[in-house]
């Protein structure tokens, strides 16, 4: 049972916080907690009606889709099934970059600028309004409560996004203190940092953890090797996201922290797509999101077949994501979960993964530490970072006309600052960076190997 303070935060303080921000989070979460128990037929009817209204709003208010629907003679009012989406062309990152202004609703107010952070390495800029934020927070909140924890329960977040790490101003610090959320920066994975993280976890006795699976796994490894006991702290669940969760990571995290591991899948752009329930199902946030799986030619695949994840987020037409190609790989499940929720399921998620890197002095850091260095260079279209050894790192780049010769020095200096001044940096300019055999891109690859708890390189099977 949640304590008195958690009830106060979840039932009073956080709702006031959201109301002051003019967010509808509480009402949306309440509706979602009811709709998840609808029959499959009721949920399908709700989604079709929601899609019809959403696309009508886009036609009336969003210049890009007004033009596209007119060209296609697409009439949202006539939609009778979710399959009607297939008449609409895909939305790509390139289109968002090229037509950003045309994708904004003419009635949108208070839009905030966002950009993707994570392993894709592409500096995609897009805009999100209050209603979209409300729905995404509500979806995460609902999923959190599936595990008998709530907003206001003590939480430790192990994260590496510059948005979270750079925005710890006074207001945010007060809010986090109220919510009992404590942030640990996930870039430097040295042994001393890991031990510090472990000490913080022991001291704060959180009810839940949230972070990258690779980082929580590394903390668990360090705790095990140093004889620190973490399975008696009362941690109820470890939420992981932003990377593929491997079986060996799940097993180690669960064993060391003494709690189940709940996988989550989503992004700033595509939204909170799916979250795992205690029965094991990866439930799609079906009230807001439609997921299609397509092959290399863009054909929609049936449940069970693996392909690219395409997302339509119906929460708002402020800056709509319609048939948005995520670049991730997954499959849908035709079965329903044993938990009784009618929300459709993802069967498997390949997702993007980001490797660790090992500096010359043995410091272990998250691959995102270098992703941000290269990603922020304006003239780079695409890249791949390959750590051949602790003494040599190659960086493959595709460039546009804005790329300057001096940018090479900027990249090399940023990488050396993190990996070591004596590391050799080779920058290779290519017309096209090849994908992996799987067809996906990996933006950080380390041949040094996955780090062990002591910071030495070891090889871990990719599940």
Description:
With 463 residues, the chain is of the alpha/beta class. It has three domains: 4-135 and 267-349, ANL, N-terminal domain (Rossmann fold); 148-259, 3-Layer(aba) Sandwich (Rossmann fold); 356-458, 2-Layer Sandwich (GMP Synthetase, Chain A, domain 3). Helices cover 34% and strands 24% of the residues. The chain has helices at 4-20, 25-35, 40-61, 63-72, 93-98, 130-145, 162-166, 170-179, 191-204, 213-225, 247-257, 368-375, 406-419; strands at 112-115, 125-128, 155-159, 181-185, 208-211, 237-240, 261-267, 271-276, 282-284, 289-294, 307-313, 321-333, 345-349, 356-358, 364-366, 380-389, 392-399, 424-429, 444-446, 450-451, 457-458. The strands form five sheets. Strands 4-3-5-6-7-8-9-13-12-11-10 form an eleven-stranded mixed sheet, sandwiched between helices. Helix 10 crosses helix 11. The protein is globular, with a radius of gyration of 22 Å. It starts with a helix and ends in a 5-residue tail after the last strand.
CATH class of the largest domain: Alpha Beta
Largest sheet: 11 strands, mixed
Can you give the mean pLDDT?
89
Looking at the structure, the CATH topology of the largest domain is Rossmann fold
* Total strand segments: 21
Q: Uncertain runs with pLDDT below 50, 5 residues or more?
A: 163-168, 450-463
Shape category: globular
Number of structurally distinct domains: 3
Proportion in helices: 25-40%
Write a brief caption for the model.
The protein has 463 residues and is α/β, with parallel strands linked by helices.
